[in-house]
Amino acid sequence: MLDAPIARIENLRVEFETKAGTVVGVEDVSFEIASGETVCVVGESGSGKSVSSLSLMRLIEFGGGTIAGGKLVFDRKEGGEIDLAEAEQSLMRTIRGNEIGMIFQEPMTALNPVFTIGRQLTEGLKVHRGMSASEADARALELLREVRIPEPERRLKQYPHELSGGMRQRVVIAMALACKPRLLIADEPTTALDVTIQAEILALIDRLKRETGTAVMFITHDMAVVAQMADRVVVMFRGNKVEEGTVEEIFENPKHPYTQALLAAVPRLGEMTGTDYPKPMKLVGSNAAEPEPIIGSDETLLEVKGLTTRFPVKGGFFRQTVANVHAVEDLSFSIPKGRTLSLVGESGCGKSTAGRSILRLVEPMKGSVKLDGLDILGQSDRDLRKARADMQMIFQDPFASLNPQMKLADQVSEPMENFGMYSASERMDRVAALFDRVELPRSFMQRYPHELSGGQRQRIAIARALALNPKLIVADEAVSALDVSVQAQVVNLMMELQSELNLSYLFISHDMAVVERVSHDVGVMYLGRIVEIGPRRAVFENPQHPYTQALMKAVPIADPRKRKQEKDLNFKPIPSPIHPVGYEPVKNEYKEVGPGHRVLISDSGY
């Protein structure tokens, strides 16, 4: 039997005042969280998950919301139960960070860009725990080790922008755990993380929960994470709780149609076992016929040989180059027309740099890139601009890649204008057709990016990438931040466009279940090198390299009876990719283990 609840939300109602009148963020939600228990709150964007957690922290007022009804009862251990909805902000400042810790979804906005990591970690310890500077520094170092950050001593002196997304998220988690809170609220804490780091973070939160009896409120839209973490699940839809039950009940016997649809949209690793070609998912409620597999052609579109990209590390009095970051090292692969090659690996393995180097958004040091026979690296700036019409990119964060001051129709027509394609009226007709193609209403053409949800913004990014009829699209984590059902729709859309327009994709991702769904071929990257590459079926069903095997083992499965144990996750810390000037790494040598399936034999350090 679990202890008395640490937190109880009773009939919570939250309202926001807008120009159009009152908007209800959460209508009527009640649930409780006991000591040592993980309650997962699931639902799509806009269902009220984050609003509930921000209300519990009483941060909702700073976001323009008001708690219009209900109670937020919190057991303070010393001092008994209080209703946080009635508490003064001065008391809330004592409770926040000390008794209730919060891991925010977006680590870059949760960290202060002008302070070092060390200063941000020690601040709460000094304020809430009264530690001296040296004690706080020692605890900060210990926390960074707990969240498995490599070279923690160096990280304490660095600033947030110097860390990768996964590292920043681990720092935010360390900050939330610093004061050993009674209640930990985790708002999508692993959305932007790699599979291996996600597995470690989930195991870490689970271990801390068991050791310290912390109650965990875990907000997510990733059903595989829910299966891994939850004791109980609360399903939210449009500001209301539609279903609640133990994790087994929700997964094995969902009662509400929304829960059933949510579970049906989850891509599960192993679903494509035994099939050679990718095919779109059949979504609940769609009347479309059974999707056809996408076969593609054998004619090569993109050929990359020996691609190497390094970034200089400056230092010393004269800002000379003292070392190099070996981001991409001797990369070779090809993509046929109408097919998809996925690059997978952890943050910092060089997959995004590889995509940008191919488009020459980052200048490679050496190697060759040929697109339909044209040597991309040998083009002058003017000729490169022309060649860029054939290769487009969909970025990870659609909000950052769209201009907040331009209407959506102008953003989609801008590439055509830049290249002098079509007349003004033809451009608008084409924009309207592209909106239809990505399944957005034409009324959205006059809207701005902030008026759309994340999934809708990503559709605009896809429409803009298609505007010039490219042959190759580099999709850099294009669906990683989307809800399950939206992700399924966007992935299906990308695959339908591929079969219609014979597009080739370089699909960069860390989500193995999505990669299995969309890929013809898969390359696994580690420290700037491809350690294993081959047909998707061969790599997924018969992984040969130890790193690929570790990666597959880390993927959470959307089944609560197949939970990963911490002892299963024995990842080696990733060595530093920074090497002194003059260091020449060994050339990549591969062994063929099957038709088109190659494994790196020269030392990759794993």
TrEMBL record:
It catalyses: glutathione(out) + ATP + H2O = glutathione(in) + ADP + phosphate + H(+). It is found in: Cell inner membrane. It comes from the Bacteria. Its EC number is 7.4.2.10. One of its GO terms (cellular component) is plasma membrane. One of its GO terms (molecular function) is ATP binding. Residues 7-263, 302-552 form the ABC transporter domain. It is a peripheral membrane protein. It holds the Pfam family oligo_HPY. It is an enzyme of class 7 (translocase). GO terms for biological process: peptide transport; transmembrane transport. Its main location: membrane. Keywords: ATP-binding, Cell inner membrane, Cell membrane, Hydrolase, Membrane, Nucleotide-binding, Repeat, Translocase, Transport. The complex is composed of two ATP-binding proteins (GsiA), two transmembrane proteins (GsiC and GsiD) and a solute-binding protein (GsiB). Belongs to the ABC transporter superfamily. Glutathione importer (TC 3.A.1.5.11) family. PANTHER family: GLUTATHIONE IMPORT ATP-BINDING PROTEIN GSIA (PTHR43776:SF15), TRANSPORT ATP-BINDING PROTEIN (PTHR43776). Part of the ABC transporter complex GsiABCD involved in glutathione import. Responsible for energy coupling to the transport system. This is Glutathione import ATP-binding protein GsiA. It comes from Thalassococcus halodurans.
